[in-house]
């Protein structure tokens, strides 16, 4: 590594540690930022010599990254951006902090995939899904798929692992000559009715889909979720025992096994290790407070709300909505979510934009109570389980109330 | 299906539904049922024929490609034109609003619209994103418009339409006027579930569609709080 990169790496580690000591979060953004200031090519230098996997998509990337790390650790030490800092500053900081490792698994914000692909020269890129997210500023879904497709076409040597159930992801992945397909299901269809290739209508039947006017259709997947397990390309079924709730996480496990297999890790060896993952940056974490067993679920966009309802138990449920910068300032997506699965549960609402949620729930016919703070919500429910579903900054606020639970 | 039901058609949700547009259909149906008016909601996909006998039509927002496709199919279908000629009510937001005009701009070129309103749209200097508030045309007798906008287009009104509102916060058509209306047709840049913050506008559409001169009030406590909160948020 050139001297400038060494200095940059060391300063980056120190800055991150100082920031942590000062109680300013995990320091991964500021550390990476300083390192890249000193050496703009620092990420490239830090990635060189490692076998890298990138994980990107709208939803599930933090969880899938953590599951992939667990699977790959059977082969050797793995560097990763475990705190969800998924832009180049976060990647730089994570690699600087990890020191020398044979492997790296990095979660990548979908907007940064092209740049991180260029700088880290990964062996594998996993593409999970694409759906509407933070609409007032994110690239529209079709534009994102086009950006991915162009980026992948520029790196034909990279092995792509992609979700065959998502038409937008499939089309993007077909920019690459070498794709391993997995089927992880897709609960959310409202961003893929129009063919990204020709503008024709996409027709769905069961889990299958095809364009009605051009040859684009669902590829035959090599890795498939079946009941509570995963079928690998040889046809062998592996039971997946997770500590994370929901069928969506079985799909994330299938993706992790497919990525690990690209590094020579056999699914039979990897699958046991997946159950070591208990929570992901606070998500799914269970905390006991004043006799209430609180579980935190993060839901950032319509697709992930549907997944959260699937994971939550029938118990009192607190919904919290903010619309700060990281969430997107627009709350109109609330009307893309059908809250009907909550019918019959006791529902409490809070957050900066609780009134938007109140209007939505009223139209949905779901009775609710408004509370002005998380402690008020705790006081309002009897001892026992409390499910908490919140969007990004609302989730972080509640996590802070619970002492930054991991 | 009973002919006494209020029939609401949501046009092409497969193409034009980007920002919670379903909300307007849900809100109108809930507010009608709240008055004991039976409602039938009908979603017509772009590969289906558009019925021309419904009372109220909704068109949502969308990306460039789907917007151009929707214009082409609606012009070829002709159902919406026949419905408007019969006096049906149309409420269109964002890309759907642009469609109602004579032309709009998408994917780098100009496309013919439905020519149901005397207006045309082109590209603005920058994307308009944020709160959109305005004083609604006094002839409509409504409280101020409250909404959120996210669009790259600018819309120029001809003499055959009136602005829906005069902008107090945001951009709307051009930074001054916002939306347009003529007869029973209303278009607005207040995107997605625009009616969630404008229940009086929802009720106006319902009165037009049913012919009822008066609708009994509903409990709008939460909407009032939301409107007030947003009003305070944009106050200078
Ligand atoms: Zn096609």
Q: From the alpha carbons, calculate the radius of gyration of chain B and give it in angstroms.
A: 16 Å
Distance between the termini of chain B: 50 Å
Q: What percent strand of chain A?
A: 15-25%
Q: If you compute it from the alpha carbons, what radius of gyration of chain A comes out, rounded to the nearest whole angstrom?
A: 21 Å
Low-confidence stretches of chain B: none
Main beta-sheet strand count, sense and barrel state of chain A? 9 strands, mixed
The proportion of residues forming helix of chain B, as a percent range, comes to 25-40%
Low-confidence spans of chain A: none
The CATH homologous superfamily of the largest domain in chain A corresponds to: Mur-like, catalytic domain
InterPro entries (chain B): Class_I_gatase-like (IPR029062), CobQ_GATase1 (IPR033949), GATase_3 (IPR011698), Lipid_II_synth_GatD (IPR043702)
Pathway (chain B): Cell wall biogenesis; peptidoglycan biosynthesis
Protein name (chain B): Lipid II isoglutaminyl synthase (glutamine-hydrolyzing) subunit GatD
GO molecular function (chain B): carbon-nitrogen ligase activity on lipid II; glutaminase activity
Short description:
The complex is a heterodimer of chains A (406) and B (236). Chain A is of the alpha/beta class and 406 residues long.
Descriptive report:
- The complex is a heterodimer of chains A (406) and B (236).
- Chain A has helices at residues 3-21, 28-38, 42-47, 61-72, 88-98, 113-120, 141-153, 167-173, 247-262, 267-270, 302-311, 354-364, 374-380, 392-401, and strands at residues 51-56, 78-80, 103-108, 124-127, 159-163, 179-183, 202-205, 208-211, 223-226, 229-231, 237-239, 286-289, 292-298, 317-320, 347-350, 369-370, 384-390.
- Chain A has 406 residues and is α/β, with parallel strands linked by helices.
- Chain A is built from 14 helices and 17 strands.
- Chain A is globular, with a radius of gyration of 21 Å.
- The model of chain A has no long low-confidence stretch (mean pLDDT 90).
- Chain A folds into two domains: 3-276, 3-Layer(aba) Sandwich (UDP-N-acetylmuramoyl-L-alanine:D-glutamate ligase); 286-405, Mur ligase, C-terminal domain (Protein-Tyrosine Phosphatase, Chain A).
- In chain A, strands 2-3-1-4-5-6-9-10-11 form a nine-stranded mixed sheet, with helices on both faces. In chain A, strands 12-13-17-14-15-16 form a six-stranded mixed sheet, sandwiched between helices. Chain A has a two-stranded antiparallel sheet with strand order 7-8.
- The relative contact order of chain B is 0.16.
- With 236 residues, chain B is of the alpha/beta class.
- Chain B has a six-stranded mixed sheet, with helices on both faces.
- Chain B is built from six helices and twelve strands.
- In chain B, α1 crosses α5 (199-210).
- Chain B has a single domain, classed as Class I glutamine amidotransferase (GATase) domain (Rossmann fold).
- Zinc ion is lined by residues 195, 197-198, 200, 211, 213-214, 216 of chain A.
């Amino acid at each position: 590594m050139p001297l400038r990169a060494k200095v940059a790496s060391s300063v980056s580690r120190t800055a991150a540690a100082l920031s942590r000591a000062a109680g300013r979060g995990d320091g991964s953004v500021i550390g990476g930022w300083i390192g890249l200031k000193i050496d703009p090519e620092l990420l490239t230098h830090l990635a060189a010599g490692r076998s890298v996997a990138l994980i990107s998509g709208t939803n599930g990337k933090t969880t899938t990254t953590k599951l992939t790390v667990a699977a790959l650790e059977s082969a050797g030490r793995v560097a990763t951006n475990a705190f969800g800092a998924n832009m180049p500053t976060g990647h730089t900081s994570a690699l600087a902090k990890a020191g020398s490792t044979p492997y790296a698994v990095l979660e990548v914000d979908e907007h940064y995939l092209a740049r991180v692909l260029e700088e880290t020269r990964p062996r594998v890129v996993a593409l999970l899904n694409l759906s509407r997210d933070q609409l007032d500023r994110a690239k529209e879904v079709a534009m994102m798929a086009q950006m991915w497709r162009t980026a992948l076409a520029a790196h034909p040597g990279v092995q792509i692992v992609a979700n065959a159930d998502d038409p937008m992801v499939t089309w993007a992945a077909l920019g690459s000559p070498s794709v391993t397909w997995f089927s992880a299901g897709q609960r959310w269809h409202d961003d893929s009715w129009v063919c990204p290739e020709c503008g024709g209508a996409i027709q769905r039947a069961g889990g299958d889909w095809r364009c009605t006017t051009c040859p684009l259709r669902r590829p035959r997947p090599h890795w498939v979720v079946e009941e509570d397990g995963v079928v690998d390309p040889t046809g062998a079924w592996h039971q997946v025992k997770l500590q994370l709730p929901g069928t969506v996480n079985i799909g994330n496990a299938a993706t992790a096994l497919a990525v690990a297999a690209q590094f020579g890790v056999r699914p039979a060896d990897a699958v046991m290790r997946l159950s070591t993952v208990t929570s992901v940056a606070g998500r799914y974490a269970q905390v006991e407070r004043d006799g209430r067993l609180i579980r935190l679920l993060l839901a950032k966009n319509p697709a992930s709300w549907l997944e959260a309802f699937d994971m939550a138990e029938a118990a009192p449920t607190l919904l919290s909505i903010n619309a700060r910068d990281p969430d997107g300032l627009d709350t109109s997506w609330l009307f893309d979510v059908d809250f009907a699965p909550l019918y019959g549960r006791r529902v409490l609402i809070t957050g900066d934009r609780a009134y938007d949620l109140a209007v939505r729930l009223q139209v949905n016919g779901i009775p609710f109570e408004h509370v002005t703070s998380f402690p008020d919500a705790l006081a309002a429910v009897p001892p026992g389980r409390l499910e908490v579903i919140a969007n990004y900054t609302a989730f972080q606020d509640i996590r802070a109330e619970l002492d930054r639970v991991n | 299906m009973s002919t006494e039901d209020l029939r609401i058609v949501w046009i092409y949700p497969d193409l034009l539904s980007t920002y919670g547009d379903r909300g307007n259909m849900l809100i109108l149906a809930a507010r009608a049922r709240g008055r004991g008016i039976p409602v039938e909601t009908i979603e017509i996909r772009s590969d289906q024929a558009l019925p021309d006998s419904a009372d109220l039509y909704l068109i949502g927002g969308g990306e460039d490609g789907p917007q151009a496709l929707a214009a082409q199919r609606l012009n070829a279908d002709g159902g919406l034109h026949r419905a408007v000629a019969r006096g049906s009510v149309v409420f269109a937001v964002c890309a759907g609003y642009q469609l109602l005009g004579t032309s709009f701009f998408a994917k780098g070129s100009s496309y013919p619209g439905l020519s149901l309103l005397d207006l045309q749209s082109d590209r603005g200097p920058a994307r308009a994103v944020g709160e959109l508030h305005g004083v609604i045309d006094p002839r409509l007798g409504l409280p101020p418009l409250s909404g959120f906008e996210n669009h790259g287009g600018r819309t120029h009104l001809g003499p055959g339409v009136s602005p829906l509102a005069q902008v107090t916060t945001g951009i709307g058509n051009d930074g001054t006027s916002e939306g347009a209306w003529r007869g029973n047709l209303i278009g607005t840049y207040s995107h997605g579930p625009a009616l969630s913050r404008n229940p009086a506008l929802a009720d106006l559409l319902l009165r037009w569609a049913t012919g009822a001169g008066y609708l009994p009030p509903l409990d709008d406590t939460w909407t009032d709080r939301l409107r007030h909160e947003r009003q305070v948020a944009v106050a200078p």
